[in-house]
Write a structure and sequence with these properties.
Elements lengths: L38 E3 L9 E11 L6 E11 L3 E3 L1 H10 L7 H16 L3 E11 L2 E10 L7
Antiparallel strand pairs: 1-4, 2-3, 3-5, 5-6
């Protein structure tokens, strides 16, 4: 059966306006060797509560231009047996300073690494990236079932 070609009101391209492709720029984002995120034992594992961590000075680089991107990274999680150790989290954050990475990949990689380290009941990572060319990006990724914070 021949289906008609789907038409869009505008051309869809996976390139920038100079014709170069974005494909392949982030192939290794899941295999990057990041600094370890350390944890410490939660003394209240039977209580549901939420920890908020704001990182207002996050920087990375645009993978296309090499120009800096600035963001506020917000981590919210409900710990189970472990809590995030903040000094190691700061070193983890600094790893991205000279890395060319898309905003969406920053947030998802942060979430993957936090979940791997702390094994929370629930976690959410948001990235509020500063405006670039009149466009502001906010990316949010979530893991697990959201808790109320009431124990």
């Amino acid at each position: 059966m021949n289906r008609p070609k789907r038409r869009t009101p505008y051309p869809v391209r996976r390139t920038d306006n100079r014709g170069s492709s974005y494909e392949g720029l982030q192939e290794n984002v899941r295999r990057l060797k990041t600094p370890a995120i350390e944890v410490w034992r939660n003394k209240y594992p039977g209580r549901e509560y939420i920890i908020n961590i704001d990182m207002p000075e996050f920087t990375c680089l645009c993978p296309k231009t090499g120009l800096p991107d600035f963001a506020k990274i917000i981590i919210r999680y409900a710990p189970d047996r472990w809590c995030l150790e903040l000094k190691s989290l700061k070193y983890y954050e600094l790893f991205y300073r000279n890395l060319g990475v898309f905003h969406e990949h920053v947030v998802n990689r942060f979430l993957d690494d936090i979940v791997r380290a702390v094994k929370p009941r629930w976690a959410e990572v948001s990235g509020e990236f500063n405006a670039r060319g009149g466009i502001r990006t906010t990316v949010r990724a979530e893991y697990g079932k959201r808790v109320t914070g009431n124990g």
